[in-house]
Amino acid sequence: MTPATPALILTEHYREITWLGHMTARKEPGIDGVAVEALELGFDGLDGAPYGGRKRPSCSRVKAQHPKGTEIANVRQLSIVSAEELEWIMAEMELEHLDPAWLGATVVVRGIPDFTHIPPSAQLQTKGGKTLFVDMVNLPCHQPGLAVKRHYADAGKLFKAAAKDRRGITAWVERSGPLRIGDRLRLHIPAQRGWAPDAA
User: Fold this and answer.
1) Which among 17, 91, 143, 177 is least surrounded, fewest beta carbons within 10 Å?
2) How many Cβ atoms from other residues are within 10 Å of residue 181's Cβ?
3) pTM for this structure?
């Protein structure tokens, strides 16, 4: 019997978790969160977190696909950002500090270049098998800017532009278990070529 072709390619790109946290507020005057040493992730993501659960009401990001408030699958359980890209945002905004909690981040990682643009349906997996399934790029919105404004009054309005192409990705839990600061995540990418709509 011919072995099945693997659906995902194991790359040699690894990321180290440098920060973990969870959101505590997502309304005006801006989102906020707290840092933690470890997260226990289930198939609902983070139990009790604002973006937890297997389902969610659709938002303005997908209004071309669903009327706002429609119940849909929740593929935005987690917000994962890159330490390197946060440093770029800080430099662009001329800030001394940018707390990942102000962005509503769940995980901050370091080590994979151009992290925001890793392919949709890629996976980030620990040595023990805990797996985060990548949804897509997390487009910047105004809420982190409001959080920044609480600490740097004149800088909040700069966030959305500074974070373009650097905002990280959203993901959901494919294989549950704990994540801890210092854990390494290996990048697995889909075994397919890029889309070519004009291909014969």
Assistant:
1) 91
2) 16
3) 0.93
Q: Write b or e for each residue in 80-103: b if 16 or more Cβ atoms lie within 10 A of its Cβ, otherwise e.
A: bbbbebbeebeeebebeebbbbbb
Could you read off the pLDDT of 20-61 as tens digits, one per residue? Answer: 999 887 666 678 889 999 999 999 999 878 889 999 999 888
Q: Using the 8-state DSSP alphabet, how is residue 72 labeled?
A: E
Q: How confident is the model over 131-172, as pLDDT tens digits?
A: 999 999 998 788 888 888 888 888 889 999 999 999 999 999
- Please name which of 142, 138, 160, 147 lies closest in space to residue 100, comparing C-alpha atoms: 147
Within the chain, strands assigned E span 8-25, 32-36, 38-41, 55-57, 71-73, 78-82, 107-110, 123-125, 131-137, 169-175, 177-180, 184-190
**Identity at 122, one-letter amino acid code:** A
**Cα gap 18→121, rounded to integer Å:** 23
SS3 at position 179? strand
What would the two tokens of residue 16 be?
């180290």
Give the pair of three-digit tokens for residue 43.
Answer: 């198939």
The secondary element (H helix, E strand) that includes residue 92 is helix 83-93
Q: What pLDDT does residue 22 have?
A: 92
Report the SS3 class of residue 40.
strand
The three-class DSSP label of residue 20 is: strand
Cis amide leading into 178 (omega within 30): no
Give which of 175, 173, 104 is closest to 140, Cα–Cα.
Answer: 104
**The amino acid at 36:** V
Answer for the pair 133, 36: CB distance below 8 angstroms, yes or no. no
